[in-house]
Amino acid sequence: MGFYDYLSAFSYSLIALSYIMRDIFWLRVITLFACFMDIYIYFFIRPGQPMWIQIAMNLVFIAINAYQLAILLKEKKASVLSGEAKIIHQQVFQAFSPVEFKKLLDVARFEDHPKDHCLVRTNEKPCDLMLILQGEAAILANGNKVSAVGNKQFLGEMSFLTEQPASATAVTSQPTRILRLPHAQLDALLKKTPELKAPLHSVLGQDVALKLKKMNHDKHATDAVVPVAAATPA
Question: Which chain regions cross the lipid bilayer (predicted)?
Fold first, then answer.
């Protein structure tokens, strides 16, 4: 085997290596390097006349991969999260990639509300999906507090998932900061980017599961107190 054969084998090895890369960024970087090496081989190293067709095809591959690589770098730069957004992503929206979460934030808005501000009304369909970032909202049924929703918990998630009116009223019990996701903009985003549906449903499903777990725990705790109270001598 001559120098040409060794270089060709190395070039093919790079292409094979690119196919096993799980990170699309490095797949394209290695492919670009392999294509440049092929052009060098076909023009300078291979005996005889340069192989213009192979060189032209590699130039096409270089253009395609360079374009896609530029898009990846742009998205990577745009996906850098900081401050409050970074904390929310880490604590609540882990199912989303940073790029996906940035798209979600583009249709959301941050709001601060005083105590006794009504966020959701019974028998009315909420127009927004809300996440409490700091503070608390009391859940009222027939004017009585039956539960509370606190930090990093959603409001209106069941109405969003089922498209049904709210079964209770939610009123802030202290100054509260929320992340509001209007249904209209959120639905438009999900239609445009359907791959966001799965992580969003995963996040909301986890929130509902935690609330049900807390509800069952509180119910068992209440049931355990009643017999003890009944057995206490007067």
Answer: 25-45, 51-73
φ/ψ (deg, to 5) at 20: -95, 0
pTM: 0.66
Fold of 83-230: Jelly Rolls (2.60.120)
| Residues 126 and 173 sit within 8 Å (Cβ to Cβ) | no
Backbone φ and ψ of 90, nearest 5°: -70, -35
Domain locations in the chain as residue ranges: 3-78, 83-230
- For residue 80, what are the contacts with CB-CB under 8 A and spacing of at least 6? 98
CA separation for the pair 54, 39 (Å, rounded): 8
The tokens describing 10, both together, are 């190395």
Q: Among 204, 133, 206, which residue's Cα sits nearest to residue 172? A: 133
Are the C-beta atoms of 50 and 42 separated by less than 8 Å? yes
Tell me the Cα Rg of the chain.
28
The number of angstroms, rounded, from the C-alpha of 226 to the middle of its chain's C-alpha atoms is 44
Structure tokens at 17: 């290596």
Residue 83, classified by CB atoms within 10 Å of its CB into exposed (0-12), middle (13-18) or buried (19+), is exposed
The answer for 125, left when phi > 0, alpha when psi is -120 to 50, beta otherwise, is: beta
